[in-house]
Structures are given as structure tokens and as C-alpha cells.
Amino acid sequence: MDSVDNGVAFNLIMLGAPGAGKGTQADRFAHAHRIPKISTGEILREAVQAGTEIGLRAKAIMDRGELVSDEVMVGIVRARLDLADAVRGCILDGFPRTVAQAIALDGIMIGRAPLVVVDIVVPEAELVRRLASRLVCEACGTLAEPDQAACGTCGGRLVQRADDNQAVVLERLDVYKRKTRPLVDFYSARPTFCSVDGAQAPDRVAAALETAVAATAERGGGAVRRALR
């Protein structure tokens, strides 16, 4: 899988608990295959920084470690998928988070490219360690790499996100298990579903992701297989 055929579209959903590395792997895959990554977290943070009404509502919810409502998230994703750069497909990072959102996404995807679904699996103890120790840029929201003294993107100050303190981390993982984990059951019977061990080093996860998506495409039929050539 060197690149995606520019004439063929497909869509990739990244599943996994907070801290599983979905964002990092989505960035890498998007760059390698020349398709846009659509991160609902980034969309929401942009709204928070802009001080919009939906941004202020979302900030209060996210600071408590809770999920933004399905109605709001579906509307955000629908609008984003209608933009020109998503015509060939995209990587969805952070959506869907609930079965209701997944059902809504199936409706949005009617007439669009097929979905490949990847679950990045990491043990809970490792998730807590990662989340409680990670830093983000105060200015642009970029996640910092280990041992960084300042943001590698804009040079901004690194801080702990309000929803990354240990108490909120545990709440976020509990919310994930109750509301988002059922997505694995929702998608697991589909021929385009696969899982990847996310507890490995990032390069190993990326390699495993490529292999898993290729194998999933073989099971999923010609449309996805052609898109991944």
C-alpha cells in the first residue's frame, strides 16, 4: 500500500479509547495516502478558541470529561464531509463515538465511498499513564512529543489539557466503555472491520495499521481494495 489511487475514494474510521493514539496514526495515514483527516476534536477546539456559541457549550462539556451531544456532532461532521476536499474520502478521527452517531453516519455515507473501520486497542493502565502525562500547545492545541520543551508547530507553551487530569481521565475512560465501546460490536461483523495493537511503538502501530487495512480491504471487496492500491 504505497498510496491511494487519486481516482478512487474510500473512508477510514479510527476507533479506540482516549489516549490510544488515534490522532497520531490518523495524521500519518492521511499524509501517506493523501486524503484529509477530519478530527471532530480539532473542529470543536477551533470553535472553543473562536468563542462561538457552540464552542462555549462544548468547552463546558469537554472540561467535565463528557461527550458532546450526538445532534451537535452529526451536524458538524455532515457539514465537513460536504466540503470539496472530502469528495475522494477521508479519515474520521473521533467520530462516530456512539452507536447513534454510527447509524447517522451510515445515512450520511449513502452514495459515498465505502467505510473501513479500525479499532486501535490499548490496555487501560497504559491509557491512564499516557493521558495523565501528555501535554498540548496552549496556542494551537498540537499534542507534544515526549521531552518537548515547547510546541514543535508554533513554539507555544505546553500545558496539560483540562480534560487530561487523572480524575477526568478515569471519567473519560468510563464514558468510553459505556457509550463508545459498543461501536466495536456495531462494526465488528462487517468485512471492512479490523483491530490493531496500539500498545506498540508508533512506527510499529503504523506498520500494523497498513497491514490490517490492506487485509481488511481484501475481505471487503473490490471497491475498497482498488482504493488502497
How are the strands of the biggest sheet laid out side by side?
A: 2-3-1-4-7
The CATH superfamily of the domain at 11-122 and 180-227 bears the name P-loop containing nucleotide triphosphate hydrolases
Using the 3D structure, state the CATH architecture of the domain at 11-122 and 180-227. Answer: 3-Layer(aba) Sandwich
| N-to-C span | 6 Å
How does the helix and strand content classify structurally? alpha/beta
Which blocks of ≥5 consecutive residues have pLDDT under 50? 1-8
**SS strand fraction:** 5-15%
CATH topology label of the domain at 11-122 and 180-227: Rossmann fold
Instruction: Specify the number of helices.
Output: 10
The largest β sheet comes out as:
5 strands, parallel
Helix content: 40-55%
Computed Rg: 17 Å
Given this structure, which CATH class of the domain at 11-122 and 180-227 is correct?
Answer: Alpha Beta
SSE pattern: EHEHHHEHEHEEHHEHH
Number of strands: 7
Outline: globular
Oligomeric form of this entry? single chain
Average pLDDT level:
82
Task: Describe the structure in your own words.
- With 229 residues, the protein is of the alpha/beta class.
- 49% of the residues lie in helices and 12% in strands.
- The chain has a domain at 11-122 and 180-227: P-loop containing nucleotide triphosphate hydrolases (Rossmann fold).
- It has ten helices and seven strands.
- Helix 4 runs parallel beside helix 5 (99-108).
